[in-house]
Please model this.
Amino acid sequence: MCEEKKTQLEEVMTKLPISLIEPDPGQPRTQFNEKGLQELASNIRACGLAQPISVRQDGGRYLIIAGERRWRAHQLAGLSHIDVIIRGESVVNGSQQLAENFFREDLNPYDKAIAVLNRITKLDAEGDGRKKFCTELGVSASWVSKALAPLNLSKDILALVKKNLVRDYALCKKLDKLRGDRRQRAIQQIRNGTFSSVEFFKRKRPQRSSVSESQENSAQEANPSVPRGTMAMRRRQPRASLPSDLLVNLLDRAGLGEQLDDEVPGWREAPDPQKKALDRVAVLLAECSESA
Model:
């Protein structure tokens, strides 16, 4: 065993047998990627441990404060001892262990939520556990609320979070609002690894009715003088709901009445003068737009 080195705050750096070390039951992290552990074990076997793990003494054994993944990788590598920093009780508390793990991106959101809840529950024995937790960890009340949020999800969505298939809480909330077949389809896609949030929640715009090429061709064959595109314009043209006499008056004041008299004789006395007038106005507008 190498010479022990005492540091400030009652910390001791040394080597310990792996068999004397075990995970802390209060450890936030409960899931470890096996492939990642194998890769880390190979790296440790080849290059050694870059950073010692942190432990605290518990009777004749030691509980891990931070570094359980490195400890597990040592076991896979077949090593008997590991570099550690033994921390004294005066510098160890539950929030310190949480801080060691919470701000790592790969921590499962469900594990984080359970760890926060457990720590707050423990602090509640002294009153106002949430406020004390915020002070210990140096975080805001909104941070705590966000960390606990996964516990409010439905069981099927929470199951995805537990398996690390979904990590973003905003996406979890959107999934939790889905119902019926659409919800099941999203869950199945996530399990299969084919889910795309952008594609799945993309709003589908209603398709506008369009005039087919054949309809335009038929219209031009029937009346070659009708500009191409007129049928589409007619469909888009809103039908007036004015009284007939008022419509006639407005067209006369706009200078269109006389032109309609020449091009659509009898339109003023027709049973439905509005239709004849507006259809011809649509054609006139189309001609103007093409010549512009």
About this structure: DSSP finds 15 helices and six strands in the chain.
